[in-house]
């Protein structure tokens, strides 16, 4: 299959050196090596000391990589986004990932929309409550409770109560208008 | 679980890609044993290796076992010689453990199964005298089953 071979050679130049896939949220090191930011981030987390480029072993750090912006893509610096992180990190004994306020970081699978929200307690509370008002059945925040059986019920109750109040308010408004 | 599947998909995707590229462009003397391809998990591979021509290992056949943890490629694979023929080499213990720095502290996620195999081929090829490591008996008696748990002391005698 010569055609597909040509193609794979063309795109290989833009493949991340870690996942071997086309680089997403690409960053480039000072030594010129291309990575997805989430991939490189995970590598840097693995080696907090003596961080080196996976390809050429040159020194590398978060501040010494340059984000690459293609045409039309997102203009946000990929380093600002919280990269996906394997679950193993949360269970490791060195507890430096949980912030001082006991904030948690969660990864919502293939849903990059939520990645930037998953840090700290406040944004979580905010989003959780706004989702409760919306009252969707496929509530993405349920990932938060995937190990506990209880809280889901509480959520349902909260939803019921808030809906009840909403109805009461509507009826009250109607009654005001009628009067 | 969501989080597991997202990190697991990187692992599987990457192993698939490595598998494909090794089948597409095999290196001389290195091939994937067909047993690797049976079963749906890619977490263990067996590699068939042949001693390179013109070296002390010419004509010999070896088998390498690769085990990948869920943190691969950020964590190095566990690599040992297995099977009836363990090469007699100053860096290979008789239980199949290999003293090679890229398998532990010098590991990089930019390395691959193929790169590891090529390093091992060249380690064997540069051997001038077939002998076991000097501490073989003691090591084999006392070591952990997993060579990655060994605190290797990389004797720098340029093989
Ligand atoms: Zn990548
Ligand atoms: Zn580099």
Automatic annotation (TrEMBL), chain A:
Protein name: RING-type E3 ubiquitin transferase
One cellular-component annotation, GO: endoplasmic reticulum
Skewed-composition ranges (Basic and acidic residues): 74-93
Catalytic activity: S-ubiquitinyl-[E2 ubiquitin-conjugating enzyme]-L-cysteine + [acceptor protein]-L-lysine = [E2 ubiquitin-conjugating enzyme]-L-cysteine + N(6)-ubiquitinyl-[acceptor protein]-L-lysine
Annotated Pfam families: zf-C3HC4
GO biological process, one term: ubiquitin-dependent protein catabolic process
Annotated pathway: Protein modification; protein ubiquitination
Membrane-spanning residues: 114-134, 160-178
Stretch list, region Disordered: 67-98
The keyword Zinc-finger appears for this protein: yes
UniProt keyword annotations, A-Z: Membrane, Metal-binding, Transferase, Transmembrane, Transmembrane helix, Ubl conjugation pathway, Zinc, Zinc-finger
InterPro entries: RNF5/RNF185-like (IPR045103), Znf_C3HC4_RING-type (IPR018957), Znf_RING (IPR001841), Znf_RING/FYVE/PHD (IPR013083), Znf_RING_CS (IPR017907)
MF terms (GO), sorted A to Z: ubiquitin protein ligase activity; zinc ion binding
Domain annotation RING-type: ranges: 16-57
Localization of this protein: Endomembrane system
Class of this enzyme: transferase
EC assignment: 2.3.2.27
TrEMBL record, chain B:
Domain UBC core: 10-159
Key words, A-Z: Transferase, Ubl conjugation pathway
Residues in coiled coil: none
Pfam families, A to Z: UQ_con
Gene this chain is encoded by: LOC100907881
Keyword Transferase: yes
Annotated catalysed reactions: S-ubiquitinyl-[E1 ubiquitin-activating enzyme]-L-cysteine + [E2 ubiquitin-conjugating enzyme]-L-cysteine = [E1 ubiquitin-activating enzyme]-L-cysteine + S-ubiquitinyl-[E2 ubiquitin-conjugating enzyme]-L-cysteine; S-ubiquitinyl-[E1 ubiquitin-activating enzyme]-L-cysteine + [acceptor protein]-N-terminal-amino acid = [E1 ubiquitin-activating enzyme]-L-cysteine + N-terminal-ubiquitinyl-[acceptor protein]
Origin: domain of life: Eukaryota
One annotated GO molecular function: ubiquitin conjugating enzyme activity
Top-level enzyme category: transferase
A GO BP annotation: protein ubiquitination
Name by which UniProt lists this protein: N-terminal E2 ubiquitin-conjugating enzyme
EC number(s) from the headed UniProt entry: 2.3.2.23, 2.3.2.25
Record-linked SMART domains: UBCc (SM00212)
